[in-house]
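Ticket #4471: complex job returned nothing on first submit. Input attached below:
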Amino acid sequence: MSFIKGLRCRECGREFPAKAIFVCEYCFGSLEVDYDYERIHGRLTRQLIESRPANIWRYRELLPIDGDPTVGFHTGMTPFYRADRLGHALGVKELYIKDDSVCHPTLSFKDRVVSVALSRAKELGFDTVSCASTGNLANSVSALAAHAGMKRVIFIPADLEMGKVIGSLIYAPRLVAVEGNYDEVNRLCAEVAARRKWAFVNINIRPYYAEGSKTYGFEIAEQMGWKTPRHIVVPAASGSLLVKIRKGFKELHKMGLIPQPETRFYAAQAQGCAPIVTAVQEGSDIIKPVKPKTIAKSLAIGNPADGYYAADAIRETNGWAAEASDEEIVDAMKLLAQTEGIFTETAGGVTVAVAKKLIEGKRIPRDESIVLCITGQGLKTQEAVADHIGKPIRIKPTLSSFEEHVKL
Amino acid sequence: MPKKIVQLIFPQKLIKKPVIYTMALKCKVMPNVRRAKVTESVGEMVLELEGTRENLEKGVRFLTKQGIKVEPVVGDVIE
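Support reply: We reran it on our side without changes. The output follows.
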């Protein structure tokens, strides 16, 4: 049964049918899925959600599909737990981690958005999915489309290192290496999207794709015991995750499932690509695009599509935004690994480093609940830390050599 | 005639200059402004450009050369 009302322009509010479109034909504003909340209210209860399998579709009434889901039956309900050792290191009382570094099947939160996007793409009659990506998104589209039996076409820059390609190539997508930089790959992909009847997960079916991020927020609320934290630090690339976690909290409240959220939102970006941080700190309404230069590649979006909305959400909730240098990112990845046993990718390092900064700068109080969003797996970006974690102790195969060199 | 949707970010020094009009005249491109926002330090405009493929490219080059950031309106694709 469908609870989708249609698509609505986020700028001018015009309504459109729930098809494969992504911008308003009047003002070119981005479109967002609108639901029939009146029909969902009362039907979707805590008991019903808790009785369903542990995956993103336990919140299916608030996700943009008409029929039954077809992709992502093992995605979501990732670990959420109290991180006392990291909390102690940061000097705070109540710290939690939502850990999507172990999201199924490709170890990043992208599996959530892609599962939703592909389920919807199938409903809309697409048999081919596509995206341009160098990392997590390419992995996720390749894997989930393979499992869904869909054709898959991935665009990448031709000079991308082989190591980054393997996580996609194993699923046998049609991998198109474009002789150009990221911007040129992007541009070409958009032009192809206008010609081919393919589902481009973050172009023509972006409104559905983006809704998948809400499940990250739904799960935090459910796993906290049907409430929301006072503070949440979210890594920001396009800014969409932050915006959608907030939308998720608001929807749960609207459906009577949680008390009024009083969560402050904080965006974490890398110093070499921080257009949202700049807008928040300058109090500007306009996001100024930048040329990214950072080791946090998965956050390297110089012109964030949801930047304005993310900055707005931060302002409305009295949150803040801050950036972390490459060195701080690596230190934070090590801190998280050495206190909580989580090896996150660089984006997770950005989140932890920025949280530390915000706590030290008294933007986040030390005695209230804080959630850190860890969204990807460190094994994918080993080169970021390879030169910063020391070396094994080399010894001879004798007890005396062991005793001589190994001191604890 | 081909069309192109773009987002323009104007630096402060260009906000008061008729850059779009000049581009339209010089490059034979027809602009249709759909959305705009101006603050003290920066301006943002979303518009549709219509012209021959060659003129559209010329127009975008002209705007870029003036110091305007020209971005496609397609959302984020790369990660």
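Strands of chain B lie at 3-11, 30-38, 42-50, 69-72. Closing as resolved unless it happens again.
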